[in-house]
What we know:
The complex is a heterodimer of chains A (about 550) and B (about 140).
Chain A: H1 27-35, E1 40-43, E2 49-52, H2 54-62, E3 79-85, E4 88-99, E5 102-109, H3 128-134, E6 142-149, H4 151-158, H5 160-177, E7 184-188, E8 191-196, H6 204-218, E9 221-223, E10 226-228, E11 231-238, H7 246-262, E12 268-270, H8 273-292, E13 298-307, E14 313-324, E15 328-330, H9 336-341, H10 345-360, E16 369-372, H11 375-379, H12 383-394, E17 401-406, H13 407-412, H14 414-427, E18 430-436, H15 442-448, E19 453-456, H16 458-463, H17 468-484, E20 487-490, H18 496-504, E21 509-511, H19 521-538
Chain B: E1 5-14, H1 20-41, E2 44-49, E3 53-61, H2 62-73, E4 78-88, E5 100-102, H3 107-116, H4 128-141
Parallel strand pairs in B: 2-5
Antiparallel strand pairs in B: 1-3, 1-4, 2-3
Helix pairs in contact in B: 3-4
The structure holds flavin mononucleotide.
Flavin mononucleotide binds near residues 34, 56, 72, 77 and 99 of chain B.
Amino acid sequence: MTSPTLTAERSSPPRAGEAPGVPPQALHLWELVSSASTPLGVVDEAGTVVHSNRALDELLDQVAFLRDWLGEVDATQAMRTSVPVEGQAPVELYLEAVRDGHRLLFAWWEHDAEAGADRDPLTGLGSRARFERLLHNDRYDTLLLLDLDRFKAVNDTLGHNAGDQLLKLAAKRLLKAIRNDDPIVRLGGDEFAIFHSAGESGLGTAEKIASRIIKLIGGPFLVESQTVHVGVSVGIASLRTGHTSREELYRHADLALYAAKANGRNRYWCFEETLEEQANDRRAMEAQLRQALILGQLRLYYQPQVATADHRVNGIEALLRWDHPERGELTPEHFVPMAEEIGEIRSIGEWVLCNACAHAAQWPDDLPVAVNVSAGQIVDPRFIDTIKRALEGAGLAPERLELEVTESVLMSNLPLILERLTEAKALGVSVTLDEFGTGYSSLNYLNRFPFGRIKIARSFVRGQQDDPRARSLVKCVLALGESLGISTLAAGIETQAQCDALLAIGCREGQGWLFGAPLTREDLDAYLRHQLPSTTTTT
Amino acid sequence: MATDLYQLVYVSRSVIEGDEQSYREQIDEILKVSRENNQRDEITGALLCNRRYFAQVLEGGQDVVQDAYERIQCDERHEQTTVLRFRPVPRRDFGEWTMAYEGHDSDALHSFNRLTQESRLKLEELDGLDLVSLLQAHLQAA
Ligand SMILES: Cc1cc2nc3c(=O)[nH]c(=O)nc-3n(C[C@H](O)[C@H](O)[C@H](O)COP(=O)(O)O)c2cc1C
């Protein structure tokens, strides 16, 4: 296709039969164009404007070189070109639909350009393409990045339609929070950005906008006859307060957003130099974590699970530790979330399962081994294969493997996680609900999956001695377990008094320092040799 | 198209300040705008307020009620909106009122004052239906 030249020949609307080459059914195009208030014209095969309305006439008068527009006139989808105008924002020209053998030409001034391809179709805010351009627009010195809290949960539980509705409503509230001419774009998903010019006032106005956003988004939403609560975290970076270059504005706002989330969400955070250091630390730690397995820095410890009555061992939990070269020994909560983020969780999880199973195969009395599994591990499509391989490799009966999942793992993606756990259970392994009581709607989980065991969180165990409420809760969980035929185990038992109190209310299984600290593999072997011969004879 | 009839009940904390006179003026302003908009949108309902709280019932098509709610909840004259009830209803409870007002010296206000004067009132513990009945009873008595 050649590039036709756009010429500014105008004609009055033809009347039926008068316009050669114009089919009668196309006449309504002329009327439509004449009555429109946006600059609008009809273009023929050659790219010549054969009819234009007043607004386009004015534009054509101002921009003499419009004829240089080289557009692909046979484009069937909307296409666009930007025509520079001296001393002003460029004019955007769009070639829209082809109708009745003619083409419609639209023109916009730059500030209106988002009405076209720059617009996010769902919310009507700017699109990511617009964001890229605004990032280099000197008019704005401050960038706010925001991210809805708990949006994923809404999407997962109420469905995508509800999620979309929520995004639309949130977008409207954002528009109410800003200064009128501050552009807002949707970056994708539940992420938004606001460009702002702070002027001489420093960060003050940006912080006010952020507070207002947090207040407005924090109010309940009505979505598909439900009341839905979300929050929002905001990161702010500004050329006014640092030595930030335009290129760095986005990265700094992103670091600030990360800090807002890390500091409890539903708040705003302004970029500061220390965030850069923290980000560097994090990057260093990520690099170290990638190598931890190869360098043999990961280690398994084993903690006995016992009968509270006679301290007899009836199971063992495998606990993962990372011997960090500078930070010392780290527990999983300090690095598993990062391992999930950077995609290391699969190899780490696999290593844990294989080693724990291999070690367990050496234990006497067919003692079961409990292994903690994280969300990222379970949602990996290869999860079930990994378990199979770990069991086969070790020659361990599936019944001797117990997977422990916390409520927060379930919460992350309930349907998929339950599906995978059901598959795992079909292999013969059992599944324990860990840290029971620390999440929410636990009863719902008990109803939806046949857990083999409930582990009562250590915070309740510790509290139950002197806090009657905690004691009632523990009692309640015990009764619940009993009536559902699920065994219950109390975690974190530290003193004999705690153990006695638990025994008194019928808690038969426990774990904690009282019965033994986490042991190395070698110490565990010694412990088992010492423990088991004497206890097995007492039965 | 959501044409079903919905009823929304919410409570919120008032942040309107000033003396009695200017307070009343601001409430009148809210009522004036509400009545105009609600008539246009075929919304009916009632508003109850004292110096510290608002309680409002809105009923109408799902879309228009949702839109009105979005405008109202972003209004700077109140905060901490708590939705007590939002569900389809078979018929309107306030069919004759674009926005009935139970504010100055009414019985409903006294009941509302009692309801909201508990020293540690938790807005979310109020019952939406109680508020609807309270308002209805007083409108009928009036
Ligand atoms: C407690 C309270 C109740 C309100 N009730 C209504 C109402 O029922 N209908 C309504 O249209 N506006 C109501 N408003 C006013 C809205 O918040 C808003 O100011 C009004 O709808 C005008 O919005 P607009 O300028 O975008 O049209 C209420 C405001 C407050 C503070």
